[in-house]
Design brief:
Blueprint: H1 6-19, H2 23-48, E1 55-59, H3 65-72, E2 77-82, H4 85-94, H5 96-100, E3 104-108, E4 121-127, H6 136-146, E5 147-157, H7 160-163, H8 178-187, E6 191-198, E7 205-211
Bound molecules: S-adenosylmethionine.
S-adenosylmethionine (SAM) binds next to α1, α2 and β2.
Length: about 210
């Protein structure tokens, strides 16, 4: 077996931190994610089209820019779901006030097994997460289960061609083609699926928006 070079090991460590930020380095990764992904996350929140009265979740919220944006939009209750204890602890500290007021609820969990009743939510955003989900069909079914009829799902993903140029994505990222993702979302029960682009040119990120039949 050929030993992994130091550079490849460093890239693998970056990929691991992006997939599940942890410890001191994970906290720094959370801040970098907030800066680097802000435009996609803000566009994902806008694409939910949710206003006051809605219950909305951000699954895999990382540094929390989506939670902040949803709270700023005035939705009734924001739910944040994370499997990273570091990101949960950071969000608990940063958002203590909306948590105390009952406007934000944080949950430890995974997209494949969500801590919600059936039809509990009006909308879900999840950005830059599905690269780390091995069984996407099962996760999409679970997302459909917890959305009410007419509820909206917004998945944000980097363009696979663009992502494949980033060397850390060689280490465990699942870069699924968009024309495989759209039928997978439809198969889970969503319709009116749109591929909205965020950014310029061929490498612009994708917001895949789908609705459950009303
Ligand atoms: C690359 S970060 C993206 C964070 C944020 N959504 C953004 O766009 O900046 C991926 C986040 O998803 C979380 N994550 C990965 N797999 C997940 C899963 N199966 N269920 C829930 N969260 C997951 C990780 O812990 C990490 O915080």
């Amino acid at each position: 077996m050929i030993a992994m070079s130091i550079a490849e090991r460093a890239l693998a460590a970056v990929a691991r931190q992006l997939g599940q930020p942890s410890g001191l380095a994970g906290r720094a990764v959370g801040r970098l994610l907030n800066r680097g992904n802000r435009s996609v996350v803000v566009a994902a929140v806008a694409a939910t089209d949710c206003g006051p009265g809605a219950d909305v979740a951000d699954i895999g919220f990382g540094g929390g820019v989506g939670l902040d944006t949803l709270l700023g939009r005035g939705v009734a209750v924001v739910h944040g779901v994370e499997m990273s204890e570091t990101m949960l602890a950071e969000a608990k500290r940063r958002f203590s006030e909306p948590i105390a007021r009952g406007r934000l609820r944080l949950h430890s969990g995974r997209m494949e097994d969500l801590p919600f009743d059936d039809s509990a939510l009006d909308a879900i955003i999840s950005t830059n997460t599905i690269y780390f989900v091995p069984d996407l069909a099962a996760a999409l079914k679970e997302l459909a289960r917890v959305l009410r009829p007419g509820g909206r799902l917004v998945l944000g993903v980097g363009d696979p061609g663009q992502m494949s140029k980033m060397p850390f994505t060689r280490h465990g990222f699942r870069l699924r083609p968009i024309d495989e993702l759209v039928p997978a979302i439809r198969e889970a029960g969503f319709d009116r699926i749109e591929d909205k682009r965020v950014g310029d040119g061929q490498g612009a990120a994708h917001l895949l928006v789908g609705e459950l039949p009303g």
